[in-house]
Amino acid sequence: MLGKLMKYEWKATWKLLLPMNMLIIVMTFLACVTVQVDFFDSDNSMVIFSAMMILLTYIGSMFVVCIGTAIYLIYRFYTSTYGDQGYLLHTLPVDKHHIIIAKVAVSAAWIFISMMLVFMSVMFLFAEQGEFLVDITEAFESVIEYWGGSEVSGFVLIMTFIATVFHIFARVLKVTACVSLGQLSSDHKVIMSFAFYFAFYFVQRIFTMLYYVFIEILNHANESYRFSYFDNSWEGTLISSILYSVVFYLLTWYVMDKKLNLE
Amino acid sequence: MAPIVQCMGLTKTYGGKVALNQINLNLERGRIIGLLGPNGSGKTTLIKIINGLLNPTAGEIYINGQRPGIETKYRISYLPERTYLYAGMKVIEMVQYFQDFYPDFRMDRAYDMLNRLQIPPNERLKNLSKGTKEKVQLILVMSRDADLYILDEPIAGVDPASRDYILHTIVNNYNRNATILLSTHLISDVENILDEVIFIKYGNIILQAGAEQIRQNEHKSVDRFFREVFAC
Asked: What was the ipTM of the complex prediction?
């Protein structure tokens, strides 16, 4: 049944999200042509104006696709799970875990696709002619260095990729948990969902702070060995993402299984 | 055979408000049962609990001898008051959806009913009127060979001319060993097909009796009797 749920989740989302992602490809092509041909050197002010408009539209489309994808997926989760369509979804002979997994996996996949397309698009736009692969490698190295990797290796690259995937899952599950917990309110479901989101944000910040304090205390107490931080590394991202994913998954499941109350 | 639905001390409270108050109820197989009561009487709460959409606060409920869960959802065909169809899908895709998830779904029966009601299978649901969507929903629900059909206001949204056909569809398309639990305000329209009625008020079952028994004992229709019992 999980496969069937995922199939219908794809079918329900691709009609809007595929064209949105295609927009990135089209706008990247137009922006690349504009930059490579160097219309900005033209004497014709209309050509320069058009080139500027294309680049502005390109930047705007990136924002629209990223934010639009997120908003649509949240709306889709809310309406299909706790709206009228929930009456169909929750009376299907399927496990609640399968419902959550199908929705989260498809949402995470779309966010990953959008992120990769935007990343590749920016690379294409700023890569010098014929040096796309060189530039993209350098970009990956920059990302890994930003996340605290001291040296770039195949292992670090794979682990960074895995950490990114788990990070996306944790973010999606955070939203599903907030939307689900918001349903516990009888009158202010949307406001409560936002309230839970900000509450979780602060709790996560506090946990991060406590983690730093804990490491400092350990180092202070133990002079023979120095513990290091996970800060800005794939390790920290991976571990925290897995922990948060488990917590947010359980919260979503609890509301869906024990506290479901459709309008 | 054991009743299709057994409730023992079934209670549901929302905060301090009691929606169902220690209900003891058995629904026998092969009956068409009207669940009748005014707004806020607990009909929808009871229906949601049977469908596994709500957990009871106390008491026990068994459907086919099992607590509400995946197995019972295989056996219940539920028509909610809400329109739960995916607006972007075509009628034919919705039929395929039911076929995919319910092993007891009869595709030939669905297409036959769509044909009779002249609903184009390739039409998108968002292009259909509210009444037609409700007909599609009813067709999907009645195309299953379930043990228990739960129909919440199945004729409320359709025009009077179509009501007879809808009721005819219900009566002629359900498994004879199955039970239909029908919740409606339009008692006079459904009275003739009911075997049994349940009156529910403030979360309590105040009457469970045969429809014919009421007519004989009270010398009035179920509709008239209902109006007297629930008179404001």
From this structure: 0.90
